[in-house]
Write a structure and sequence with these properties.
Helices cover 42% and strands 15% of the residues. It is built from 11 helices and 11 strands. A 6-stranded parallel β-sheet has the order 1-11-8-7-5-6. Strand 9 and strand 10 form a beta hairpin. Helix 1 packs parallel to helix 11 and helix 7 packs across helix 11.
């Protein structure tokens, strides 16, 4: 089995991003990503720090807007909307993302609508997803892009390939399925109501898991030689992070697999930053 090195792919992406940032800065533009943080969630804070660290390496400016700290309580949906509206209108900001979890009663769709489509570098606006579905230019969620980037950089043939996507969320499964369809894969999307999941996944040349259930897919789900992309990030009781795929069980069967951590995650951050550069260039 080949272990696909997400960190190496991320480094290659970031090298190109850094070169582009240098050129943009020389021309007087400082690529800037605004991160709105509406929560004091520990995992979210960790993720924001990791984006900031990576951005610093490629000279992208991060503007963190900590709504929770400022108010010492959860912001309202209106607070969030107002902040996203003003960042969308701010010419010194090129990309805008909003972290989850969102305040109670606020949906990602509602929030996303306040991120201008041309700054929507993590594809949170439902209009971006609609444009993606229609084959029009738009930013897809970085995680969905990461799946395609990893497959391309690993030279996995997609045209005509039987590809099974497990998961249909608006942030991962659905946009990833749309991007892979655009790559001419024959895409099957499975979900919690799918009858006999393994019967589908066992046909897959490429199997993508974005389920959110620790080690749910085992050797029985995988066709010998298949490429397995594991998007899942599930915390375990002992503080580890594991994927949706039981890597130890699947390794003897699969042709290639992404590890967790060190697979899709670092590529996602790299592509988010690449999107900021693309937005800054416009
Ligand atoms: P989500 O919104 O909870 O969606 C999970 C999807 O899996 C749903 O479509 C659900 O089906 C399906 N599902 C749940 N149980 C299933 C089962 N037993 N059999 C088949 N399908 C099942 O999660 P998400 O936001 O898409 O995230 C998925 C995973 O990716 C999570 O572990 C998350 O942490 C991870 N993630 C990683 C990154 C990264 O950068 N690495 C980024 C985002 C997310 P229904 O639609 O029928 O409910």
């Amino acid at each position: 089995v080949t272990l696909i090195d997400g960190r190496a792919i991320a480094r290659a992406v970031l090298d190109a991003v850094h070169a582009d940032v240098t050129a943009l800065r020389a021309a007087g533009t400082t690529p800037t990503l605004a991160i709105v943080v509406p929560t004091d969630d520990e995992a979210t804070a960790w993720y924001v720090r990791s984006i900031a660290r990576t951005a610093a390496k490629v000279d992208i400016e991060i503007r963190e807007i900590d709504l929770y700290d400022a108010a010492s309580t959860e912001p309202t949906g209106a607070d969030l909307a107002a902040r996203l509206d003003s960042l969308s209108a701010d010419p010194s900001v090129h990309g805008v993302i909003c972290q989850t979890p969102l305040p109670k009663g606020v949906t990602l769709d509602e929030v996303g609508q306040h991120i201008a489509v041309d700054k929507d570098v993590d594809g949170a606006n439902p209009e971006s997803l609609g444009r993606l579905a229609a084959g029009l230019p738009a930013f897809a969620p970085a995680t969905a892009q990461a799946v395609v980037e990893i497959l391309h950089r690993s030279a996995v043939p997609l045209v005509g390939a039987d590809l099974v996507m497990v998961g249909r969320s608006n942030v991962v499964g659905k946009p990833a399925a749309l991007l892979l369809l655009a790559e001419h894969a024959t895409v099957t999307v499975c979900h919690s109501r799918t009858r006999d999941l393994a019967a589908h996944t066992r046909r897959a040349d490429v199997l993508v898991a974005a389920i959110g259930r620790a080690r749910m897919l085992g050797a029985d789900h995988v066709k010998p030689g298949a490429v397995v992309i594991d998007v899942g990030t599930n915390p375990t009781d002992d503080g580890q992070l594991v994927g949706d795929v039981d890597t130890a069980a699947v390794e003897p069967v699969a042709g290639a697999i992404t590890p967790v951590p060190g697979g899709v995650g670092p590529v996602t951050t790299a592509l988010l930053l690449r999107n900021v550069v693309a937005a800054a260039r416009r």
